[in-house]
Amino acid sequence: MAKLDAEGNILEDTSPCAGVRADLKICLLESDCVKKNHRTPRECLNINDGTVPTECQALRNLFFECKRSLLDNRQRFRGRKGY
Predict the structure, then answer these.
(1) How many CA atoms lie within 13 A of 62 on its CB side?
(2) Residue range 44-50: mean pLDDT, rounded
(3) CA distance 55 to 40
(4) Taking a C-beta distance cutoff of 8 angstroms, is the pair 33, 52 a contact?
(5) Measured at the alpha carbon of residue 22, what is the angle toward residues 55 and 58, in degrees to the nearest 5?
(6) Residues in Cβ contact with 78 at an 8 Å cutoff, skipping those fewer than 6 apart
């Protein structure tokens, strides 16, 4: 269940793969691609010019695997990938 403040706004993301998503957002926002080249994080994920660190690419793959494990019925027994 999501935590709400007095006005009813959601304070904490409790959706599946939220931790990986948050780490990926922070990694992309702190990359040279966003800071120096002034691109959006989505554009930075789609290009391969070396301005996005390998840590962000690894987080992107982990986020993909986490989302894919939500659709895989075999993962019901093994648990979700990610954290």
Answers:
(1) 19
(2) 86
(3) 18
(4) yes
(5) 20
(6) none
The amino acid that residue 20 corresponds to is: V
4 beta partners? 10
CA-closest candidate to residue 20, choices 72, 60, 78, 54: 60
**Is the whole-model pTM more than 0.85?**
no
Whether residue 30 is predicted with pLDDT greater than 70 in this model: the reply is yes
Q: Give CA–CA dist 28/58, Å, rounded.
A: 12
Distance CA 55, CA 2 (A): 29
Tokens of 61: 């793959």
Residue with tokens 């027994």: 77
